[in-house]
Specification:
The chain is of the alpha+beta class and about 190 residues long. It has seven helices and three strands, in the order E-H-E-H-H-H-E-H-H-H. Bound molecules: flavin-adenine dinucleotide.
């Protein structure tokens, strides 16, 4: 009936690891939530980093456009950032300033607590196929956990188009039927997570 305020009494806490700072920045734009994130003032010089699928695939695509050479340049850039970071620290630059050379790809850990109402909103935006792949993947894992934990509360959750018209207008992915099928099957005990 849309009396969504009752959902605010339920909170879920997620430990999110192995995402990039690029993705965590998108996550923390959701304001009705609490966050605790690993500080970059205390990371070790050989920090982990995320490699996007397009670059990872390029590694195995010798000779083609977006070739292995581009992937090698990416990894080389990460190593150089790491080396420069270590050099700055060794030279007495405080970690809070040395971290300015760390890339968006740097891995981070973050604890997220959201109430169920905000989770519905978060899922509507970030499970959409127009959302960036990494935040979408994180949202999908959070969605599966939320559904497993509280199936009734998240019965109607999903990207915006699952409940009605695609909210993206002219930017629609054009795959509404497929998306609805995907989220319907998640509610099927034989196929989904419930
Ligand atoms: C596909 C996609 C592309 C995006 N691209 C950009 C971009 O190019 N640049 C950019 O800056 N951001 C971008 N964003 C982020 C977006 O603008 C929002 O900051 C983010 O999605 C958080 O959502 P929100 O503001 O709706 O809600 P939340 O912060 O999750 O808050 C939930 C709801 O609470 C209410 N609320 C919260 N705070 C306030 C307030 N101060 N006043 C009134 N109501 C409030 C609103 O109803 C809001 O929808 C993008 C997001 C997506 C999904």
């Amino acid at each position: 009936m849309g009396h969504a305020s009752v959902l605010e009494h339920v909170v879920l806490t997620f430990g999110v690891e192995g995402i990039s700072r690029a993705a965590s920045h998108q996550l923390v734009r959701h304001r009705i939530a609490s966050y605790s994130q690993q500080s970059q003032r205390y990371v070790s010089a050989d920090f982990g980093y995320v490699t996007p699928g397009t670059i990872g695939e390029a590694e195995g695509r010798k000779g083609k456009k977006g070739s292995a050479a581009l992937a090698a340049l990416y990894h080389d850039h990460m190593e150089k950032s790491s080396a420069l970071y270590a050099k700055l620290l060794a030279g007495g630059i405080p970690p809070e300033d040395a971290r300015f050379v760390l890339p968006n790809a740097s891995e981070t850990k973050i604890l997220v607590t959201m109430n169920a109402r905000e989770l519905h909103h978060f899922f509507a935006l970030r499970l959409c196929r127009r959302a960036q792949w990494e935040i979408r993947e994180a949202a999908m894992r959070m969605f599966d956990l939320a559904v497993a934990q509280a199936p009734l509360l998240f019965e109607k959750a999903g990207p915006g188009c699952v409940r009605g018209k695609c909210p993206e207008g002219e930017f629609t992915c054009g795959q509404v039927a497929e998306v609805r099928k995907q989220f319907k099957s998640k509610g099927d005990p034989k196929e989904g997570t419930r």
